[in-house]
Amino acid sequence: MSKEQTSGLSLNGLLLVLSGPSGVGKTSIVHELLRRFDGVFSVSATTRQAGPGEIDGRDYQFITESEFQSMINEDRFLEYAQVFSRSWYGSPREPIETALKNGRLAILDIDVQGAEIVRAKYPQMYGVFVLAPSEEELLHRLRLRGREDEAAIQRRFAASTKEIARARIGNTYDDFVVNDDLARATDTICALVAKRMGVAVPHSI
User: Fold this and answer.
1) Residue 203 falls within a domain, yes or no?
2) Residue 8 pLDDT > 60, yes or no?
3) Residue 81 pairs with which residues in a beta bridge?
4) Residue 182: inside a domain, yes or no?
5) Tell me: the pLDDT tens digits for 62-115?
6) What CA–CA distance (Å, rounded) separates 137 from 145?
């Protein structure tokens, strides 16, 4: 995501930016982080149509381009961009600001471009990039999802490899975590977050 917005943000809690390729397990990790830390997740707004099985308000906030533009004009996004010159995506500001001011964990699941913008504006953020064990495993996981034909999978895989290379440049991400075992990767990220927040590590029940 690429458009910058203004305003300062009081970081009394922790702003976690979690990124990684499709199929790497981010959604499962986010759900566990929210449960263990009683965190707040910023559901992205988008102008694209909902896909099969997607629920408005859970997976995305599905809004019109007019509504999206109004949110831009009212400075209601932390970051936003038009992806592939088609649909718009943005991270609403209000739930994140409220969570941080209340000393809670706030989570953004965004791409590298968006994370770069957030890092530039809020250097206190904590960035974690989740990786598959290998490129071969990433391609395998994309195929297992069963959501796209092979041509679309190959396009997504190519975009993912570029995203990974970009993530490794600069200081956008503080840690890289390989998800070769979901439970272990989740425990690792929970421990890292707890250390940043200065709290005891909340264990899975």
Assistant:
1) no
2) no
3) 89
4) yes
5) 999 999 999 999 999 999 988 877 899 999 999 999 999 999 999 999 999 999
6) 13
* pLDDT band at 146; cut points 50, 70, 90: confident
Q: If 0-12 CB within 10 Å is exposed, 13-18 middle and 19+ buried, where does residue 51 land?
A: exposed
Domain that holds residue 113: 14-197
Instruction: Confirm whether 84 is domain-assigned.
Output: yes
For residue 94, the model assigns a pLDDT of: 93
CA triplet 183, 185, 190: central angle to 5 degrees? 95
pTM, entire model: 0.86
* CA atoms within a 13 Å half-sphere pointing along the CA-CB vector of 152: 8
Number of domains in the chain: 1
Q: Are 157 and 163 in contact (CB under 8 A)?
A: no
Rg (CA), the chain: 17
Helices (H), 58-147: 65-73, 94-101, 112-121, 135-145
What are the φ/ψ torsions at residue 76 (nearest 5 degrees)? -100, 10
Which DSSP state fits 48?
Answer: S
What was the pLDDT predicted at 1?
46
The CA angle 199-204-205, to the nearest 5 degrees, is 120
CATH code of 161's domain = 3.40.50.300
Give Cα 76 to chain centroid, integer Å: 18
Average pLDDT, the chain: 90
- Domain-located, residue 24: yes
